[in-house]
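Hi V.,

Quick status before I head out on leave. The structure for the redesign project is tokenized and pasted below; the design run finished overnight.
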């Protein structure tokens, strides 16, 4: 059975209504790492760059600045060896892979983009395993974004597809240039929080968060090199009647 994953775009109908009361994990895993989250709602550069000790973000995310052992090598491998695609209307490169033979789609109406699963690059496997160990559950889906420079970006959206498990976190692993991610709650879209995503970092968006929050990677606003994000997600019904894809070497 082939299922499609649908990622809602802001301004388009979503399945959010009526689901906001689902249990949401808060930042109860706050650690020394988590204290490095830059939490602010005014966007002054000094605040955005500081590690605000003891200031918790409202967005239910946790942050580990040093998750990838050798992020520069991983960046080089993925940037050079993945068969990235850059669709005409997408301000970034993209690459979608999945453990099982399930296409991915996001947007609605004329904005729907569909992706067929590509091979999981061997360099992704230890990262995937480490994410799964951190979360304690398989994460079948990995969608990668490649931001070539400061102009590349990803608009406000929530990863709230019915086809993705919202009882699990969504993991964002970053290699390459440091970029900011922005979060805003659906109930007050002016209440924006920002977090720097460093080279080699892991940001976990808590289970259930996609029903109540949106996130975005804005244009950098300063000169910067390329960045790759790997977003790992759990797939609904994974393994039930789906063809397992094996990891394959990518030239
Ligand atoms: O590039 C990022 O850090 C965010 C990626 C993201 O939000 C997504 O793929 O849905």
């Amino acid at each position: 059975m082939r299922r499609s994953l649908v990622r809602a775009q802001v301004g388009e109908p979503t399945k959010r209504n009526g689901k906001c009361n689902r249990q949401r994990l808060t930042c109860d895993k706050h650690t020394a790492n988590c204290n490095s989250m830059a939490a602010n709602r005014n966007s002054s550069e000094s605040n955005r760059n500081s590690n605000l000790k003891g200031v918790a973000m409202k967005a239910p995310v946790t942050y580990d600045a040093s998750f990838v052992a050798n992020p520069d090598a991983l960046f080089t491998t993925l940037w050079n060896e993945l068969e990235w695609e850059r669709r005409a209307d997408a301000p970034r490169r993209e690459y979608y892979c999945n453990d099982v033979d399930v296409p991915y789609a996001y947007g609605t109406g004329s904005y729907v983009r569909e992706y067929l699963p590509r091979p999981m690059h061997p360099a992704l496997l230890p990262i995937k395993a480490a994410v799964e160990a951190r979360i304690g559950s398989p994460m079948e889906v990995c969608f990668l974004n490649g931001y070539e420079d400061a102009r590349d970006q990803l608009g406000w959206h929530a990863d709230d597809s019915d086809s993705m498990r919202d009882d699990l976190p969504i993991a964002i692993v970053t290699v390459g240039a440091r970029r900011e991610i922005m979060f805003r709650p659906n109930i007050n879209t002016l209440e924006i929080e920002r977090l720097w995503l460093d080279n080699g970092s892991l940001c976990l968006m808590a289970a259930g968060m996609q029903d109540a929050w949106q996130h975005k990677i804005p244009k950098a606003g300063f000169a910067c090199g390329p960045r790759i994000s790997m977003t790992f997600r759990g797939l609904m019904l994974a393994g039930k009647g789906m063809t397992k894809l094996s990891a394959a070497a990518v030239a």
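Above is the designed sequence. The CA atoms of residues 121 and 250 lie 6 Å apart.

G. will cover questions while I'm gone.

Best,
W.
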